[in-house]
Amino acid sequence: MGPERKGGLPVTGTRAPASPDPLAPADSWGRLVSAALVGTSRRSVPDTPDLPDLPGASADEGADALLCRAALAAVRRVAGYTPATGITPLTPDTEDERPEAGRAATDCLERIVEGREDLLPEWLELVAAGGRRAAHSSLPALLGQGVRHSRLRPAISAAIGTRGQWMARFEPSWSYVLAEPLPTDRFGERDWEHGTPGERRRALVALRAADPGRGRDLLTAAWPGLARAELRRGLLEALATGLGPGDEDLLGGALDDRSANVRGTALSLLTRMPGSAHAERLRGYVREHASQRGDGSLRVDSVHTRDAAVHRDLALAAPTGPEETKHQRHERVWALVTHAPLDVWPGLLGTDPSGVLAAAGGEAARSDGLFDAFVNAVTVQRDTEWARAVLGTLGLRAARDRGSFQLDKLLDLLPVQERCAHVCGVLDGAEASLVRWAQLLRATRGPWTRELSARVVGLLHTARPKHDPHGYQEVCGAAAEHMPPEHLADLHEQPPIDGSSADTYLRLRDTLRFRLDMHREF
Questions:
Q1: Which Pfam family, just one, is annotated for this protein (predicted)?
Q2: What does the pLDDT average to over 452-475?
Q3: Most buried by CB count within 10 Å: which residue of 3, 221, 249, 411?
Q4: 300 strand-pairing partners
Q5: Cα-flanking dihedrals φ and ψ of residue 306, to 5°?
């Protein structure tokens, strides 16, 4: 706010600025706000020499006069600025050494942003695989995509190069890229000691990649002074780089953190360390609380103990009431099954993973949510052997509820060839609606093998979608997303069906043609 003025002149003893700030020229706004807060019954409307006169208005007119003058001041503050001149041009950072994507690839990106956003992840994968970066003209559009799609932020941060990182410093909504670690990052003392939370996290990740022990020591020393839970969580996540046995003490201490998000992050990292003392304690809880019923089904009691160590090791809040609620029981059992090393269950029940899943799938056990808890454990612990067992148990039933069975995550744990062969076997061995097939195919990430693509092409050519147009549309959508674009040649040029499904088929061909051109441009 500018200096107090009387009659348009600075108060004695106050030096008027040589070049007034256009955002606050002898601004009456502050005095108007003060009068409004106190009330015109207690304070008269102040003089406003910097504003135009209001015909017939005076300080005696009370609230009406104040509001009229405030309206004038508000309009001036919004629209009455003089554009600044003489600003020294900003110098961008050193240019990225990677070559820029070509004109054709840049044009392709423009068309994707305008109406084919579902293909943006594939474009980003191609530009990264080719060792290139996005053209400077594409950077605002790409940075804007990252604002809306957080899952793409790591890929976007890598594609924009140093120019995009530089641009992000001047637009708050783009600042997310400044917190995304890059393979080219190098640890800097300034970033660690005085940087923003994002810069500190990137510095720690870079140091962990080069010297995990030193990175852990720096975080351990800084931990007591990290007041914000979000900062503690972000820096703790950096331990995922170079995670090893030496990190257990720091992660174990984080299980006592007052923030549930920090405790959860610590538990997720400890779950990736099956040889830790924490993992052995969880095995002990399983042996104590799990057993097999007379009908062969699995039983896991509610871990209803007042022992605070159990709740601490599972990153759960300590019980508050004398009686255990159904929700608390489910939460404790789910946490124990999810995070206890999977290798404890076969030894406990004397069977293999498939046998354990069969016991967890019994009627009594399924009502407790044990089967779903095991599926969650498999995806969290990323165990391929157990993923095979789950998929073999489910078959096409997995497509009924992708949310429950996390089908896409299970299939991701298999090598591509095995994943596609499994899906081919399910499709060949079951009768199901097109919608069920589409759910299974959408969960099968690409690129599909030639065998799976041929199976889907045959389905599209022989299906009769008259009574299931939505299912046919979903199958086409899955093919458009995951089928290698060179398999376009396997599709008939003319739709094998009539009606709205014919348009769906043609859109599939159009998308595959677009993707094929995109691949050729790289």
A1: DUF5691
A2: 86
A3: 411
A4: 290
A5: -85, 5
